[in-house]
């Protein structure tokens, strides 16, 4: 048996007046997603346990079958794992975004979708601050890591994408050390050569760092231990790769995978083909529906869903020619609303077909169709278990 899960990050949404009261998933041309639903079943799943925020870390670990209540220690430890940082006891990892703050307002949580190359130069400058207490590590694009020793963070640090176009003063860390690091970083970034080049090129400078998502080391049982299978993860996003590392999966780095529209879809698909030769399970993650929704750009979100349908799901379906026992599941990790530009709570629609899956009545994949099916799965852990072992 071969298993593929293709995640369209944040693709679930609301019914939107401008789309004739359809959701972006309903409005977009998605023949391949519909094929998955019509060859199997479509239903709703509750990926985010009560009390957890609807973040991509919680959603993706839940889809991979890890109950966040048992295994989630924070978002940054997962991303730290993805860039090879092994946290020791007593160490806390925090997400360190490069952001643009103008006149005290969060202008851009991604410093103008800064490239990894440009960001690395900036992180190098910040690493001048490295000391016994804390260290900066370069990740990708605007997503980086700060590791701090022996710190107790008693507050919930707000993600910068939740305070777009908002005054940051109310969301500053109260922890003195973190506030001090942020201040020192601001001074370095004000004089950073790479920022001067960015401004000269008409790009947004990384004026500040934004620290959030902290946590201590996470230890997961592997897929081999749990299901006697092996797997691979294909994603542009450190967070998703990190869950793969912690789950003992092979993590593939696809050149040109950007996490945005026009990402290297063909590269991800050929990686998927390679990985299916070696492993039982491949997890392909596409970030663009989430990013475009964070921008509040409805047309781009629809485009992102259509690209995911055509270049990922359509190509995965073609693999049925090689693997007739292939099981395929499609779903988002959480809804991301174009209207609010951020993640939303609530269940998400999934569609799945395979040897262990009955054929239901759904002919399309959408929020509405999933609700109408009456199929409700209580957790990601349960959904993954049914996907691998059967029992729908
Ligand atoms: Zn997400």
Please describe what this structure looks like.
- By secondary structure, the chain is of the alpha/beta class.
- The protein contains 15 helices and 15 strands.
- The chain has an 8-stranded mixed β-sheet, sandwiched between helices. Strands 3, 4, 5, 6 and 7 form a 5-stranded antiparallel β-sheet that branches.
- β8, α10 (238-246) and β9 (250-252) form a beta-alpha-beta unit.
- The longest helix has 21 residues, at 298-318.
- The radius of gyration is 21 Å and the shape is globular.
- Bound molecules: zinc ion (ZN).
Topology:
Elements: E1 2-8, H1 24-27, H2 31-39, E2 41-45, H3 56-63, H4 68-71, H5 76-82, E3 91-102, E4 105-108, H6 116-126, E5 134-140, E6 143-149, H7 176-190, H8 193-200, E7 208-215, H9 223-227, E8 231-234, H10 238-246, E9 250-252, H11 265-278, E10 281-286, H12 288-294, H13 298-318, E11 326-331, E12 336-337, E13 342-343, E14 348-353, H14 367-373, E15 376-377, H15 380-389
Parallel strand pairs: 1-10, 1-11, 2-15, 8-9, 8-10
Antiparallel strand pairs: 2-14, 3-4, 3-6, 3-7, 5-6, 11-14, 12-13
Bound molecules: zinc ion.
Short description:
By secondary structure, the protein is of the alpha/beta class.
Overall outline: globular
- Tally of helical segments: 15
Q: What is the terminal separation in angstroms?
A: 17 Å
Strand element count: 15
What Rg do the Cα atoms give? 21 Å
Bound molecules: zinc ion
Query: Which structural class is indicated by helix and strand composition?
Result: alpha/beta
Q: In which range does the helix fraction lie?
A: 25-40%
């Amino acid at each position: 048996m071969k298993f593929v899960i293709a995640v369209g990050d944040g693709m679930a949404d609301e019914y939107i007046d401008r789309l004739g009261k359809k959701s972006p998933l309903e409005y977009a041309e998605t023949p391949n997603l519909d094929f998955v639903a019509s060859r199997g079943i479509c239903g709703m799943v509750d990926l985010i346990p009560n009390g957890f925020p609807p973040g991509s870390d919680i959603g993706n670990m839940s889809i991979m079958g890890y109950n966040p209540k048992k295994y989630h220690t924070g978002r940054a430890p997962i991303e730290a794992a993805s860039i090879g940082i092994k946290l020791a006891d007593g160490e806390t990892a925090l997400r360190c975004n490069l952001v643009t703050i103008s006149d005290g307002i969060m202008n851009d949580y991604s410093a103008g979708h800064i490239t990894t190359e440009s960001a690395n130069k900036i992180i190098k400058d910040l690493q001048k601050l490295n000391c016994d207490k804390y260290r900066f590590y370069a990740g990708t694009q605007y997503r980086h890591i700060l590791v701090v020793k022996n710190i107790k963070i008693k507050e919930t640090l707000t993600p910068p994408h939740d305070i777009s176009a908002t005054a940051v003063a109310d969301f500053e860390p109260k922890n003195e050390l973190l506030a001090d690091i942020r201040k020192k970083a601001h001074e370095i970034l004000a004089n950073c050569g790479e920022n001067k080049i960015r401004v000269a090129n008409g790009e947004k400078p990384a004026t500040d760092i934004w620290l959030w998502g902290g946590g201590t080391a996470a230890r997961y049982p592997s897929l081999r231990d749990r299901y006697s299978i092996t797997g691979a993860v294909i994603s542009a996003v450190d967070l998703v790769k990190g869950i793969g590392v912690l789950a003992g999966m092979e993590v593939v780095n696809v050149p040109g995978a950007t996490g945005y529209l026009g990402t290297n879809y063909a590269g991800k698909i050929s990686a998927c083909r390679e990985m299916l030769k070696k492993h039982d399970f491949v997890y392909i993650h596409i970030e663009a529906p989430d990013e475009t929704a964070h921008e509040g750009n409805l047309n781009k979100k629809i485009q992102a869903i259509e690209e995911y349908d055509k270049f990922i799901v359509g190509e995965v379906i073609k693999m049925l020619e090689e693997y007739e026992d292939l099981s395929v599941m499609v779903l988002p990790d959480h809804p991301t609303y174009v209207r609010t530009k951020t993640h939303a709570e609530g269940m998400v629609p999934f569609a799945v077909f395979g040897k262990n899956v009955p054929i239901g009545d759904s002919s399309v994949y959408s929020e509405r169709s999933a609700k109408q099916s009456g199929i409700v799965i209580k957790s990601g852990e349960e959904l993954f278990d049914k996907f691998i072992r059967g029992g729908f």
